[in-house]
Amino acid sequence: MKKKVEILAPAKNLVQGMAAINAGADAVYIGAPQFGARTNANNSVADIAEMVRYAHLFKAQVFVVINTILYDNELETCEKLIHELYHVGVDALIVQDMAIFEMNLPPIVIHASTQANNRDPKQVDFLQKAGMKRVVLARELNLDQIKEINEACDVELEFFVSGALCVSFSGNCYMSVAGGERSANRGSCAQNCRLPYKLTDGNNDTLIESSHLLSIKDLDLSDQLPQMIEAGVMSFKIEGRLKDVVYVKNNVSYLRKRLDDFLNGDGKENYQKASSGRTFYTFDAEMDRSFNRGYTDYFVNKRMTKIGSWESPKSKGQIIGKVIEIKNGKYLIENAEKLNNGDGLYFINEENEADGVQINTVENGWITPNNYKNIPIGTLISRNSDANFNKQVEKDNSAIRKIGVKLKFEETQYGFSLTATDEDGHVSSEGFKITKELAKKEGFLKDNLEKNLIKTGNTPFIVDDIELELENNWFVPISKINEIRRTVLEKLIDIRIEEYHKEEQAIVKTDHPYPEKTLDFTYNVSNKLARQFYKRHGVEEIEKAFELQWEPGKARVMTTKYCVKYELGKCARFQRATMGEKLKEPLTLTHGENEYKLKFNCKPCEMEIWEKDADLKYDEEFEWEKFN
What are the tens digits of pLDDT across the range 135-170? Predict the structure, then answer.
């Protein structure tokens, strides 16, 4: 049997979720009224129910994120909400908090959020045995690590393929709490990583006065899909529940085409699309034409290039070309024929800061901005707002999804009947009685049937074939042909939704041993049920979640594979031959009153961020000599 491979799209709300399905998504993930890691992307249960009905029409799935940590006073409310979501037909929940496995739940499928520390085979295997049907892997993994997990664990693997990257290990970023008491694990991340920081060394010398030193580029693995499928990934997740509809439709459409190329080519024998229908587009999808900070493959191919987006955390967009000439308040720019009135342009100014202008007019390569700014000749220009593209993609008909049907019109004893069979084998049929009279015009019935049965209008169907079984050239009013077509196709919509197969999985309490006996605050245990879960699985010591015990000043607030030293060209492991003089530690990041120390663990190739009063030891000899 062929393995299904899916594109999983973000849905900020019902409208964007439906747009994602229309653009070709095989599944969407959407926030519930509470307990989602994006508090500005919550949705009512009624909207989720409508989302489910629309998605199921196309055999697409709906996953609801319940991926914050829970407090004791929220457990009962969360359990009630899960029952509501089950009854409206959602396909799965995406969770972080193990308390959910201790609740009295209906037989609903559970996925492990990337917030659950899914970075090694032992953790993933444990979660699979605990009842997780799918695990969303940590973004930091490379292909070899994904393969290792896939070979060791019998569980579906999901991996982010595009969108913004969390610089921290997911679930283990506490900068937002420490910097202002807004918890990322509670859905209120303040995005401290996108702020500008001053960088100083151990001599208190300023290395960088102000730059977005923790801001990294966005992810794009669109050219890695075959390799990732081979490694074991079956779901490709697009980040972006706070992004606009242009971003969602553009990313989904682009990845749909890339994945279909594989499924219809080298992957044809072993893999198949995970949902039904095909999409017709009025635009050419290009990921760099919607929000992006520049792109990186992160670590999927191991540590290869610098990944920082230090100039700005804002969208850089699509590279256009360099400024060639300036005259009379206008710019002559390479490839200006790509630009349109109203576009937004991005560039790095003479102060090495991100800057921009909006185009008023474009004529013969000359750009007249709304507000003139001095841009030196040779400056590279990008377009971060594509006015015409945005208008085109925003239209409802820019991506239309249709399900193939075959129609059979035939005579019955007392009249005629029409049967529709869709691409998945669902059947809808309707007949009508009529007094049979021969038509005066030759070929009347056949011509009118072929002309009118193919008109599917705003229905989700497209007619791929029409079969006629007629004994004579009968007269049948066109209105009757249209009426029976509408009736049959409307019934087929209901039949597809009613016959949709939703997987269910009973929640069974397990007691297999957890890989660790002691859990520190990074395991985010914030309630009695999560504690109960880990105790039953053999954990002996459990520290409270950071949010419940934080004392300002001395905490480790982030662990990351991203490395400031590497970005500076000062990595003793990978840049030893070119790094020059080593840096005096500790390196310190400062933004306003917030100050953080950096600690570099070269053996696992990780960087830690600590609050300013932390008492840290620096093993310089290991770092410097180990990789010499």
Answer: 999 999 999 999 999 999 999 999 999 999 999 999
* pLDDT-based confidence at residue 37 (cuts at 50, 70, 90): confident
Structural domains for the chain: 3-164+219-275 (3.20.20.70), 166-216+511-627 (no CATH), 314-394 (2.40.10.170), 402-499 (no CATH)
- Answer for the pair 151, 126: CB distance below 8 angstroms, yes or no: no
- The alpha carbon of 357 is separated from its chain's Cα centroid by a whole number of angstroms, namely 30
Q: How far is the C-alpha of 58 from the C-alpha of 46, rounded, in Å?
A: 19
Q: How is 134-152 classified by DSSP, letter by letter?
A: EEE--TT--HHHHHHHHHH
How many other β-carbons are positioned within 10 Å of the β-carbon of residue 282? Answer: 11
CA distance 256 to 287: 12
Q: Over 90: is that where the pLDDT of 567 sits? A: yes
For the chain, how many residues are written?
Answer: 628
Q: Give the Cβ contact number of residue 516 at 10 Å.
A: 17
- Tens digit of each residue's pLDDT (9 = 90 or more) over 405-423: 999 999 999 999 999 999 9
Structural tokens at position 106: 């209906």
Closest CA to 22 of 221, 237, 283: 283
* Cis ω before 586 (30° cut-off from 0): yes
The residue behind tokens 């017709």 is: 280
What's the farthest any 2 CA atoms get from each other in the chain? 100
Report d(CA 142, CA 125) in Å as an integer. Answer: 18
**Are 4 and 47 a contacting pair, CB within 8 Å?**
no
Helical packing angle, 143-152 and 121-130, nearest 10°? 40
Token output for 488:
């049959």
pLDDT surpasses 60 at 14: yes
Q: pLDDT tens for residues 68-125?
A: 999 999 999 999 999 999 999 999 999 999 999 999 999 999 999 999 989 999 999 9
**CA quadruple 86, 90, 92, 94: dihedral, nearest 10:** -100
Distances 582 to 28, 214, 334, 585 between C-alpha atoms, Å: 47, 21, 41, 9
| Residue in this structure with the two tokens 């079956």, named with its chain if needed | 234
H/E segment holding residue 546: helix 546-549
Amino acid at 581: E
For the chain, first and last CA: distance in Å?
51
